Amino acid sequence: MSGAFAALVFVGVITLGGRWYSDSDPGWFGGHWWWVAVGAAAGAAVGVARRLTGLPWTTPGLFADLQTEHVNARLVPGIAAVSAVSLIGGASLGPEKALGSMGGGLGSWIAARRGFKAEDGQVNTLAGFAGAYGGLFSSTVIVVMLIMEIARPGGKRFTTALAAQIVAPSVSFGIYFAIAGAVFLGNYKVPQFDFKSWQLLAAIPLGLFAALVVIVLVGFTRGAARAFGRLKVPDIAKSVTGGVIFGVVGVVLPLSMFSGADQLKTVLSHEATLGLGVVSATLIAKMLTFGVSQGSGFVGGPIFPSLFIGGTAGVIVHHVIPGVPLGLAFACLLAAVPGALAAAPFAMVLTAAFLTQVGALQTAPVLIAVVTAYLTMEGVKYFLASRKQARTAGAKSEG
Description:
The chain is an all-alpha fold. The chain has 16 helices and no strands. The chain is globular and about 60 Å long.
């Protein structure tokens, strides 16, 4: 219940606060130069909010919180405040980090107060996440699948965690829908296409392309983190610098700002008029602003931006290879990019099916693309881990 109200209040605040962006043009230099001042002011506000709330520069990410099944309740006020300022200021981040922290933090706090055993406390934390996301995603099935895939509770906790995650988002969704009247269905109107058997084979290279996009995105994110980490300036100066950067990029390519949920609708509906050049540049700009936003101290989630990145990559595929239906390319990449990034392939297949309403048969290639991207990324992770282990062993032997 508390998750639904948290989602209503938080989403309402950031939606109202972000209305300054609404008069932009999606093409080249469609923004306004005063946006740079907004980004800088947001960076300053982020720095002040961090100091006032005592939020450390480095905090666990959304995926880390889910995998450890614990949220430090003391960090929640700072995360919520900094995330609200970040999202209102145009940072290329989503609301899922703040909402997950609020829901999961409440679950962890209740478990600690009542003296729950470790396993029961973990289940309570996951139920808190589910309650917060029931309102945000407006789909119990997506929420349950997402949390179970990322957290992967094992043993006896699986059954209790599953039951708790079914109940919590169901109640949350009921409250959210009764008040807001919003559902997570058909948000992106893609052209319908007939299912053909060749699409199953075509889904494999689409999945490989999605994995390549994720690798580039991770490269941007880590590069930005290293760059800001090396800056010998106060933290507030880093945030201001980050705000100026994504503000300038936003002036040039306005669709690169904010979470990407509404901006992706623009990319999809104007894909013919925007052209391949603008759409491709927007994809790169979004990766840059996402990395800069995270690296410079702004707080937010990665799921909504990665949905934008995936959907935009799908539009690019259709432009380059017109024989691939727009609906097919869009749905496959919309699911495959966040599915590989979050290691939650089946949740993202459901998300793409709900968001695009492409049809049951048309979902089959989407599943193949997501699994291909996911397995490719797992292979890349294994290769990199093996190389690191080998270098460490070599260094020890030389020493």
